Amino acid sequence: EVQLQASGGGLVHAGGFLTLSCTFSGVTFDEYAIAWFRQAPGKEREGVSCVSHSGMSTYYARSVKDRFTISRDDAKNTVYLQMSSVEPEDTAIYYCASDDGVLGRGCSKFPRYYGMRYWGKGTQVTVSS
């Protein structure tokens, strides 16, 4: 069974740096594309970034493209989201999600949520001004 868990959230000042981690277990990790989404109170869920199963392709929302970096470490079954120059508008609960492995759509539907099948519990990121 596919299981994902996001971690690494916390409180950070504007302009600071934070790294989130998504651990993945239950199946062969390198067969799955992984994406990060975020949702703030009263706002729609937003696609933040996505990395293909091979790590060859990455995708970013316009709002974070020059500030965030997604990467994966298959040996540790982990995907990271490095956040730099964070802004108060980055405050949200961050979730990681995966497609359906070899039967999935990869990042082709990103930033739409319906391209992802499995979802982990989120981690809170709060950016103070």
Q: How would you describe this protein?
A:
This protein is an all-beta fold and about 130 residues long. Helix content is about 0%, strand content about 45%. It contains no helices and 11 strands. The protein is globular and about 45 Å long.
Layout of strands and helices, then pairs:
Blueprint: E1 3-7, E2 11-13, E3 18-25, E4 34-39, E5 46-51, E6 58-60, E7 68-73, E8 78-83, E9 92-98, E10 118-119, E11 123-128
Parallel strand pairs: 2-11
Antiparallel strand pairs: 1-3, 3-8, 4-5, 4-9, 5-6, 7-8, 9-10, 9-11
Which characteristics define this entry?
129 residues, four-stranded antiparallel sheet
The whole-number mean of residue pLDDT values reads 95
Structural class determined from secondary elements: mainly beta
| Strand-residue proportion | 35-45%
Rg over alpha carbons: 14 Å
Describe the global form.
globular
Question: What's the main sheet like?
Answer: 7 strands, mixed
Helix percent reads: under 10%
Q: Can you tell me the residue ranges where pLDDT is under 50 for at least 5 consecutive residues? A: none
